[in-house]
């Protein structure tokens, strides 16, 4: 999808300059693709544990403390994502009620909001599962080690 | 009187303002808040938050949910919600912002309350801008022919259709990128009003404005507050606020923001050498023929979405009322 | 006011216990908001905040610029940047460290991220400096500091986020970063040569390269120059908007990657996935920060600060100085983005009230953020170096970056005293 976004911009700009014909409503397509792409990637962020954290207490060598901490943090994150999923469902219903849609293509907002809500719910489940699983040296650690890329 | 005042509790409202602090409306809203405070003997106060609590298009829902107490929304940002009010956004409606806004409020009271578009919030006022002009860079305008194939920045629901119908290419981009698009020649023109040109400092980028009676389109706003907060206000204070709201606030907001804003822009435009071209009657007639379909589309939408088959009557009333109020105000003003 | 202070304290406590910053910000933001409006109205703001942040055209630059940097990195162009810089100045005393700084600057021109710049350059430059018996301190310091250039020299993710938070034009912010970025680069070079002049054994000179080799090495880096010219030149010249520039830059990088990797579509897919995950993580932070700043807005803290400043009769520059001190102290403990997300909502209304330019302040904020990346005890770039080079003690890196921190403080003073350095180029735009 990200590759599609990049190509869409290129075609839009080239179309505008060379053919005097930009992609109609490229802005709306970009926004919708971006929303779906980011929304659907949320469970993957949880799976890879790609969040930015202040790893102050990571170094403390008390296995039991670390295990409890992992589980508590996992529960908190799962809870927060669960609440976010619920709110996104509420929002999706409000969008459906108000017939919210984009201005040019009249793409309805509700289905996209429902998809993000579902993705948040899956993210909550993944966060829960990840916190209960014993820590191991996996891809997650590799990504965490390489940093979030900022 | 002391007993009645005791029943009236203090209510503090939070205004989430998403327009920038430099927006023409800001001092006039502050002024209206003072009027409310005085009329309720200091019991109802409206405070402006330093930062809006969401994107402009989220504000109706935020007020409905009670997250925010008070706001001004732009109806065209959520086109699916304000189907009934979108009639005021059509081409060739009304005149100056103040009178047209009073007419808009009356039209709403007479015809549109049943549509239920503002259910769940307390509606305080309805406002329209002045009718929008077509602003061109490096292009002259004498007839419709001159517009063929021009690239213009469009937004909302009406201007994309206007651009299409007049043979132009609509470019959909956020207002924040308009300056860059004009200076780079990405677009040949934009739809806006003089006040908008001044606020976004676009005068140096533009050469001509094409103006038609009533404008090519018209943005509309609503001033709303949360029902929960409204119910916290005692009957006496509610009555005092209602007196300041409605036609009064509609005029106060629209006239001060847009009519006076446009007047301020006149000097700026003159200095920058931007000419305003009134389209001649023949051209206007040709445009009306081409754009008539947009009006028919709205009348059909109103029937399909809200079950109201009197769209044409509503538009007639709105146009007549706007005319009538403009004449009354002109007479009163001398 | 009390609510805001409690919120800050709880937020920091949660973050220090290891809760991801996005969650700490968001949870405290929403729960704190409940004290003003009750539970359901506070919860309600989560929905539109998520939807409107994801469904947001200007924010599409974030994944696109990340994609561009990742692709260029995977194409091996970063190694060639280093070789070219080394061919020109490697034979000076401390030359390899200087070359590292230059290569970091070059990589910054197509990467929006400091961490990516540090991670990429530490893989390339550290082994070379070791081979030439560089002190590990100087080697580590130059990579960690050079990496910070990633967010000053455009493109810059941090400037995008600042622009979104303060409603400042992103194109102008990018252009404003060019001269301060070059200033930073020069000051880092001065730091390297000052250190090696005092203690030559830290950075021995490398072999001299013939002009023919130099030109050949230079011939390989044209791709980076072309990408930078298209993206930033396009923005500066108004050929396209920053959002469009990001898309076109990403297409250019895609072209180089596919050509050099022999059309490795699977590699492209992997990079695309990594890019989207990193972006999604950033978008979650944006949501958390938005929720937290809603609470700050509701608490009235910025207005109280303004009132307090007026009551105390503080001169505008005294306020700036105070802010810089706060930033320096915060920057020791906080992650770059966290610092910006916490402070900008509070500070920027004050800044604009005092009549300062928000573009200039953006550059100042990026500068203090760069410092935060390399100051102990918590510096993201230092952690990156450490995690990629397990045999490098933290203490070595910390002492290694000290000369560069000094250079940064000098730069901060210059930029604060002469706002024109940041504002000259943007003022010349259309
Ligand atoms: Na950069
Ligand atoms: Na630090």
UniProtKB/TrEMBL annotation, chain A:
Annotated membrane topology: Multi-pass membrane protein
Top-level lineage group: Bacteria
Keyword list, A-Z: Cell inner membrane, Cell membrane, Membrane, Transmembrane, Transmembrane helix, Transport
Record carries keyword Cell inner membrane: yes
Compartments where found: Cell inner membrane; Cell membrane
TM region positions: 25-45, 71-89, 109-132
Domain Tripartite ATP-independent periplasmic transporters DctQ component: 5-133
Function: Part of the tripartite ATP-independent periplasmic (TRAP) transport system.
Family: Belongs to the TRAP transporter small permease family.
Record note on quaternary structure: The complex comprises the extracytoplasmic solute receptor protein and the two transmembrane proteins.
UniProt protein name: TRAP transporter small permease protein
Source organism per UniProt: Marinibaculum pumilum
Automatic annotation (TrEMBL), chain C:
Keywords: Cell inner membrane, Cell membrane, Membrane, Transmembrane, Transmembrane helix, Transport
Topological category with respect to the lipid bilayer: Multi-pass membrane protein
Chief place where the protein resides: membrane
Coiled coil listed as a keyword: no
Membrane-spanning segments: 57-77, 138-164, 170-196, 217-239, 245-263, 275-296, 308-330, 337-354, 360-384, 396-425
Tagged with keyword Cell membrane: yes
Record's subcellular location: Cell inner membrane
Superkingdom assignment: Bacteria
Residue ranges constituting the TRAP C4-dicarboxylate transport system permease DctM subunit domain according to the UniProt record: 8-420
Xref: Pfam families: DctM
Family membership: Belongs to the TRAP transporter large permease family.
Subunit structure: The complex comprises the extracytoplasmic solute receptor protein and the two transmembrane proteins.
Function: Part of the tripartite ATP-independent periplasmic (TRAP) transport system.
Protein name, as recorded: TRAP transporter large permease protein
Organism: Marinibaculum pumilum
Record lineage: Bacteria, Pseudomonadati, Pseudomonadota, Alphaproteobacteria, Rhodospirillales
């Amino acid at each position: 999808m990200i590759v599609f976004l990049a190509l869409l911009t290129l075609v839009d700009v080239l179309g505008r300059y060379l053919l005097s014909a930009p992609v109609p409503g490229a802005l709306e397509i970009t926004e919708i693709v971006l929303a779906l792409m980011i929304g659907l990637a949320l469970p993957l962020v949880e799976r890879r544990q790609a969040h930015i954290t202040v790893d102050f207490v990571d170094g403390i060598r008390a296995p039991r403390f670390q295990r409890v901490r992992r589980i508590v943090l996992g529960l908190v994150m799962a809870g927060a994502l669960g609440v976010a999923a619920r709110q996104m469902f509420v929002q999706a219903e409000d969008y459906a009620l108000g017939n919210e849609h984009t201005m040019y293509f009249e793409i309805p907002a509700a289905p996209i909001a429902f998809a993000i809500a579902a993705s948040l719910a899956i993210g909550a489940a993944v966060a829960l599962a990840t916190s209960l699983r014993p820590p191991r040296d996996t891809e997650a650690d590799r990504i965490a080690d390489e940093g979030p890329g900022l | 009187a002391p007993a009645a005042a005791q029943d009236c509790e203090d209510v503090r409202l939070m205004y989430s303002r998403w327009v920038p602090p430099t927006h023409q409306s800001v001092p006039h809203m502050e002024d209206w808040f003072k009027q409310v405070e005085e009329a309720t003997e200091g019991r109802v106060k409206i405070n402006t938050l330093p930062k809006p609590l969401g994107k402009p298009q989220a504000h109706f829902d935020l007020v409905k949910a009670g997250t925010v107490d008070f706001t001004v929304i732009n109806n065209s940002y959520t086109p699916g919600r304000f189907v009934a009010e979108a009639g005021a956004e059509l081409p060739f409606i009304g005149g100056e912002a103040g009178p047209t806004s009073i007419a808009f409020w009356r039209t709403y009271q007479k015809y549109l309350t049943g549509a239920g578009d503002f259910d769940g919030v307390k509606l305080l006022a309805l406002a329209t801008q002045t009718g929008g002009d077509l602003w061109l860079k490096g292009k002259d305008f004498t007839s419709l022919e001159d517009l063929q194939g021009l690239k213009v920045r469009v937004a909302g629901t009406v201007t994309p259709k206007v651009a299409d119908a007049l043979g132009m290419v609509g470019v959909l981009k956020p207002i924040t990128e308009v300056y860059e698009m004009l200076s780079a020649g990405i677009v040949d023109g934009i739809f806006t009003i003089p006040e908008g040109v001044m606020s976004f400092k676009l005068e140096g980028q533009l050469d001509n404005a094409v103006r038609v009676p009533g404008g090519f389109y018209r943005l509309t706003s609503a001033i709303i507050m949360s029902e929960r907060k409204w119910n916290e206000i005692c009957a006496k204070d509610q009555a005092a606020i209602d007196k300041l709201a409605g036609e009064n606030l509609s005029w106060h907001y629209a006239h001060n923001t847009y009519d006076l804003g446009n007047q301020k822009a006149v000097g700026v435009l003159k200095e920058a050498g931007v000419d305003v071209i009134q389209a001649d009657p023949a051209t206007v007639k040709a445009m009306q023929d081409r754009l008539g379909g947009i009006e028919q589309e709205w009348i059909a939408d109103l029937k399909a979405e809200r079950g109201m088959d009197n769209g044409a009557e509503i538009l007639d009333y709105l146009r007549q009322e706007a005319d009538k109020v403009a004449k009354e105000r002109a007479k009163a003003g001398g | 006011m009390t609510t805001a202070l409690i919120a800050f304290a709880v937020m920091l406590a949660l973050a220090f216990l290891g809760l991801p910053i996005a969650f700490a910000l968001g949870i405290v933001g929403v729960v704190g908001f409940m004290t003003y409006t009750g539970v359901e109205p506070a919860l309600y703001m989560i929905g539109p905040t998520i939807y409107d942040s994801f469904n947001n055209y200007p924010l599409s630059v974030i994944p696109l610029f990340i994609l561009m940097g990742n692709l260029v990195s995977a194409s091996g162009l970063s190694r060639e940047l280093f070789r070219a810089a080394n061919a020109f100045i490697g034979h000076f005393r401390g030359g390899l460290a200087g070359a590292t700084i230059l290569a970091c600057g070059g990589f910054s021109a197509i990467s929006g991220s400091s961490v990516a710049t540090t991670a990429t350059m530490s893989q390339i430059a550290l082994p070379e400096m070791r081979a030439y018996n560089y002190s590990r301190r100087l080697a580590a310091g130059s990579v960690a500091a050079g990496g910070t250039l990633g967010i000053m020299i455009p493109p810059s993710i941090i400037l995008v986020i600042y622009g979104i938070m303060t409603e400042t034009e992103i194109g102008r912010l990018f252009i404003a970063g060019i001269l301060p970025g070059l200033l930073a680069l020069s000051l880092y070079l001065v730091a390297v040569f000052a250190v090696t002049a005092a203690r030559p054994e830290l950075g021995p000179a490398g072999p001299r390269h013939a002009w023919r080799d130099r030109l050949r090495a230079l011939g390989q880096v044209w791709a980076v120059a072309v990408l930078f010219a298209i993206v930033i030149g396009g923005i500066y010249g108004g050929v396209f908007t920053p959002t469009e520039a990001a898309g076109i830059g990403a297409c250019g990088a895609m072209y180089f990657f596919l050509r050099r990797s022999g059309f490795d579509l699977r590699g492209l897919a992997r990079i695309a996935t990594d890019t989207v995950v990193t972006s999604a993580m950033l978008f979650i932070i944006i949501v958390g920060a938005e929720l937290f700043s809603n609470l700050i807005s509701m608490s009235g803290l910025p207005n109280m600060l303004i009132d307090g400043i007026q009551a105390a009769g503080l001169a505008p520059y005294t306020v700036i100085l105070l802010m810089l001190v706060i930033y320096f102290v915060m920057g020791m403990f906080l992650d770059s983005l966290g610092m910006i997300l916490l402070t900008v909502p509070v500070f920027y209304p004050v800044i604009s009230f005092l009549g300062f330019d928000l573009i200039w302040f953006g550059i100042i904020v990026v500068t203090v953020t760069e410092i935060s990346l390399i100051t102990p005890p918590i510096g993201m770039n230092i952690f990156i170096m450490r995690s990629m080079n397990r045999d490098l003690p933290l203490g070595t890196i910390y002492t290694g970056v000290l000369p560069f921190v000094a250079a940064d403080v000098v730069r901060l003073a210059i930029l604060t005293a002469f706002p024109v350095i940041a504002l000259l180029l943007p003022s010349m735009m259309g």
